[in-house]
Specification:
Elements lengths: L5 E4 L9 H14 L17 H12 L4 H17 L8 H10 L4 E4 L4 H8 L11 E2 L12 H10 L6 E5 L2 H10 L2 E4 L12 E3 L8 H7 L26
Parallel strand pairs: 1-2, 1-4, 2-3, 4-5, 5-6
Length: 240
């Protein structure tokens, strides 16, 4: 079995339950621009950087300044996160197991630094991350490979020795492009299958041994169906 050098965790929707909050934040800002957010917008909202979502809202609404919209999204989301961002089921147990086995882990997020610091100072204050990376810490953020490459470099490791844990198509694409093995625990969007990706229904199903197996897996485990590509999980989107 391959050695597991480190685990790189996404934040929103993976370790903390913030994706619904982000959707509702975007919904409110979209309403102010005269656009009603629907499932069709999901690929441009879930797992995307603030600037990407802002550019989408400006494009579909036909109005607004992308910098001002991005600032409004960040401020509103930050207020929501400050009110509390609960951990996802199974997250605490998995982090405790990694710590007990001496496997380092870091946080690699597409959220702005102000949001990452708020969550890490709140819900995740007790978690001994090796470090945290935000969207502000690399020139390009997810779906580009830069964040995961930077995280592996900070650990002094090759990306192929790391497993990234993600919940979104953009996050999985970022980790895969960087060369990491990817464990996908989908939240609001279906994530396409590919050889470097394995899938779990919940972090409650994930152990350190399973993370190690991700390094050599080339397909989804036989007891897990492959995710279907390309379409949002309509039933999982939050209601207005």
């Amino acid at each position: 079995m391959s050695a597991l050098a480190a685990v790189l965790f996404d934040m929103d929707g993976t370790l903390v339950d913030t994706e619904v909050l982000w959707w509702r934040t975007t919904e409110e800002i979209a309403d102010g621009l005269g656009h009603r957010l629907t499932d069709a917008d999901a690929p441009e909202v879930v797992g995307r950087a603030v600037e990407d979502t802002a550019a989408h809202l400006v494009r579909v609404s036909g109005g607004g300044d992308p910098y001002e919209v991005a600032a409004a999204l960040t401020e509103s989301f930050f207020r929501g996160v400050e009110a509390g961002a609960p951990m996802r089921p199974g997250a605490q147990r998995l982090l405790t197991e990694l710590e007990a086995q001496g496997v380092p882990f870091a946080l690699v997020s597409a959220s702005p630094r102000v949001v990452v610091d708020s969550v890490v100072g709140g819900s995740l204050a007790h978690v001994p991350f090796a470090f945290t990376l935000s969207a502000d810490d690399t020139t390009r953020t997810k779906p580009h490979p830069d964040p995961y490459r930077a995280a592996a470099e900070r650990l002094g490791l090759a990306p192929r020795a790391c497993v990234a844990v993600e919940d979104s198509p953009d996050g999985a694409a970022s980790a895969e492009a960087a060369g990491c093995a990817v464990l996908v625990v989908p939240s609001l969007l279906v994530v396409p299958a590919s050889p470097p990706r394995t899938f779990a229904e919940s972090l409650e199903d994930v152990t350190v041994a399973r993370l190690r197996r991700c390094l050599t897996a080339v397909a989804c485990p036989p007891d897990r169906p492959r995710a279907q590509a390309g379409r949002p999980r309509m039933s999982r989107m939050p209601s207005a």
